[in-house]
């Protein structure tokens, strides 16, 4: 397939037709942050952290699902782009539970890493947190939806990688959440022993109970790929 040439951050770069701005940036050593992108699976464009500026476009575009086209002029780290990413991350943090010091992933989850890279501290927006009870009935997964940023990676890992279709999006607006069946409890009846979603979670919303429980004398958790 013929190469398409675009200008990215003032430099001419090329890639095959169909490739996205994010993929081309990666190929050229340009790091664009992502929170919902899963390499190898079609993008969902749900987090918007990967936005970039494309000359002639009225709005910033999500680089993970925008294919390159000939002559595009793209800015991946302009002041406008960085400010938009900061606002997006601040909004995520404004509804996040904020108990990072007690989280299994501490301050090293993907959300925190992106926030640090963007120099985001305390959100400027009113804090409106969602609190849900911790679900620890399953011997395979502990779920704390207060930390969920609705990136949908767990749903896609379960549906498209493990092909188990345990999770789905439920409710609307601020009440949106990842549900199990008709918003049932996550236990070993609905979710068996794969745990494939845990490493995909960009926060501490999903964790391995064997690590998080004080009693670590139980049998080791086997995660099947
Ligand atoms: S990574 Fe592109 S929208 Fe989330």
Do you know the CATH topology of the largest domain? Alpha-Beta Plaits
How many domains comprise the coordinates?
2
Mean pLDDT: 88
Query: What Rg, in angstroms, do the CA atoms define?
Result: 19 Å
Instruction: Report, as a whole number of angstroms, the end-to-end distance.
Output: 33 Å
Q: Can you list the ligands bound to this structure? A: FE2/S2 (inorganic) cluster
What attributes does this structure have?
single chain; 225 residues; alpha+beta; Ubiquitin-like (UB roll); Alpha-Beta Plaits; two-stranded antiparallel ribbon; 5 helices; 9 strands; globular; binds FE2/S2 (inorganic) cluster
Task: Please provide a written account of the structure.
By secondary structure, the chain is an alpha+beta fold. The protein has 2 domains: 3-77, Ubiquitin-like (UB roll) (Roll); 87-212, Alpha-Beta Plaits (2-Layer Sandwich), CATH 3.30.70.20. The protein contains 5 helices and 9 strands. The chain has a 5-stranded mixed sheet with strand order 2-1-5-3-4, sandwiched between helices. A two-stranded antiparallel sheet has the order 6-9. A two-stranded antiparallel ribbon has the order 7-8. The chain is globular. The chain binds FE2/S2 (inorganic) cluster. FE2/S2 (inorganic) cluster is lined by residues 34-37, 43, 45-50, 62, 64.
Q: How are the secondary structure elements laid out?
A:
Layout: E1 3-8, E2 11-16, H1 21-27, E3 51-54, E4 61-62, E5 73-75, H2 79-94, H3 110-117, E6 142-143, H4 153-161, E7 167-170, E8 177-180, E9 206-207, H5 209-212
Parallel strand pairs: 1-5
Antiparallel strand pairs: 1-2, 3-4, 3-5, 6-9, 7-8
